[in-house]
């Protein structure tokens, strides 16, 4: 079992201080663990002795031993499908079943990574309908940006999804301080995401990053990070846990907006029926 797996499934019951350390270590894995004891303790809001006690719980007698093991896992962030396929040997007696099971495990393992206060903060930002919301993703994660935007534009006005890096300059040009920019970026991280985040930061927008648990170069450049696991038995990373997070975010926002959503949804349905965009109209469904 590697260190990441030990953090996700610790061998013993965790104290509140331990849970804070796990959150910090996983949210910026493996970089956080390469800091000094004092720096890690400060990031997690715990004492230096708490760090040492936790390190022993996960099987290391000294902090230096823990860091040495972390260094060996630094290449995780740059893994390509080819490397992961080679590591697994490319042989699986039941890839369908194993992928399904490991993906569900990734979904369950991602839940403890989410900080409740971060979700509450993001929902609060998204509830400000006078603020613009822009979503942007990468080659694979672009569909997550589009999926979130498809829901947001039903729930509130002033939303947009950037579908091409060619749109970046024109779209971000009109960002105002306090607007929300949501970036999806997973290993192997894309340069277009770094450019977009930098532009949004310059515009003083609130920048949110959906990413994996590895060392994304954007973590220190955003206001809020939501991490998820991406490893399964497949040689390709999974974005299913991230999709679940998007679904949960939409549900949380819908609940927060309350009755105002019902009024907007009624208007949306009326307009769609007028335009004939649904196969069955409301009247046909009621018959």
What does this structure look like?
By secondary structure, the chain is of the alpha/beta class. It folds into 2 domains: 3-78, Winged helix-like DNA-binding domain superfamily/Winged helix DNA-binding domain (Arc Repressor Mutant, subunit A), CATH 1.10.10; 111-271, Glucose-6-phosphate isomerase like protein, domain 1 (Rossmann fold, 3-Layer(aba) Sandwich), CATH 3.40.50.10490. The protein has 14 helices and 5 strands. The chain has helices at 3-8, 16-27, 37-44, 48-57, 63-71, 81-88, 95-110, 116-127, 142-155, 168-172, 191-202, 240-257, 259-275, 282-286, and strands at 133-136, 159-162, 180-184, 206-212, 224-228. It has a 5-stranded parallel beta sheet. β1 (133-136), α9 (142-155) and β2 (159-162) form a beta-alpha-beta unit. It is globular, with a radius of gyration of 21 Å. The termini are far apart. Pfam families: HTH_6, SIS. InterPro entries: Homeodomain-like_sf, HTH_RpiR, RpiR-like, RpiR-like_SIS, SIS_dom, SIS_dom_sf, WH-like_DNA-bd_sf. GO terms for molecular function: carbohydrate derivative binding; DNA binding; DNA-binding transcription factor activity. Keywords: DNA-binding, Transcription, Transcription regulation.
Topology at a glance:
Blueprint (H helix, E strand, L loop, with lengths): L2 H6 L7 H12 L9 H8 L3 H10 L5 H9 L9 H8 L6 H16 L5 H12 L5 E4 L5 H14 L3 E4 L5 H5 L7 E5 L6 H12 L3 E7 L11 E5 L11 H18 L1 H17 L6 H5 L1
Keywords: DNA-binding, Transcription, Transcription regulation
InterPro entries: Homeodomain-like_sf (IPR009057), HTH_RpiR (IPR000281), RpiR-like (IPR047640), RpiR-like_SIS (IPR035472), SIS_dom (IPR001347), SIS_dom_sf (IPR046348), WH-like_DNA-bd_sf (IPR036388)
GO molecular function: carbohydrate derivative binding; DNA binding; DNA-binding transcription factor activity
């Amino acid at each position: 079992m590697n260190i990441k797996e030990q953090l996700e499934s610790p061998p013993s019951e965790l104290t509140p201080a331990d849970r804070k350390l796990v959150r910090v270590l996983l949210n910026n894995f493996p970089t956080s663990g390469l800091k000094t004891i004092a720096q890690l303790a400060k990031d997690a809001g715990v004492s230096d002795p708490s760090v040492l006690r936790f390190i022993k719980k996960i099987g290391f007698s000294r902090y230096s031993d823990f860091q040495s093991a972390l260094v060996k896992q630094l290449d995780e962030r740059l893994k390509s499908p080819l490397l992961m396929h080679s590591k697994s040997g490319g042989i699986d007696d039941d890839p369908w079943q194993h992928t399904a099971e490991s993906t569900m495990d990734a979904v369950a393992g991602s839940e403890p990574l989410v900080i409740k206060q971060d979700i509450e903060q993001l929902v609060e930002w998204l509830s400000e309908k006078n603020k613009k919301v822009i979503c942007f993703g990468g080659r694979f994660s672009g569909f997550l940006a589009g999926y979130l935007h498809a829901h947001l534009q039903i729930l509130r006005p002033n939303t947009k999804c950037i579908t091409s890096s060619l749109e970046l300059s024109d779209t971000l040009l009109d960002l105002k301080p306090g607007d929300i920019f949501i970036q999806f970026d997973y290993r192997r991280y894309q340069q277009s995401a770094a450019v977009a985040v930098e532009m949004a930061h310059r515009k003083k927008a609130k920048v949110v990053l959906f990413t994996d648990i590895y060392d994304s170069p954007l973590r220190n450049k955003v206001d809020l990070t939501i991490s998820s696991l991406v490893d399964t038995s497949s040689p390709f990373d999974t974005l299913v846990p991230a999709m679940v997070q998007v679904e949960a975010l939409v549900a949380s926002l819908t609940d927060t907006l309350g009755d105002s959503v019902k009024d907007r949804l009624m208007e949306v349905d009326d307009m769609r029926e007028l335009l004939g965009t649904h196969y069955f109209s409301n009247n046909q469904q009621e018959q």
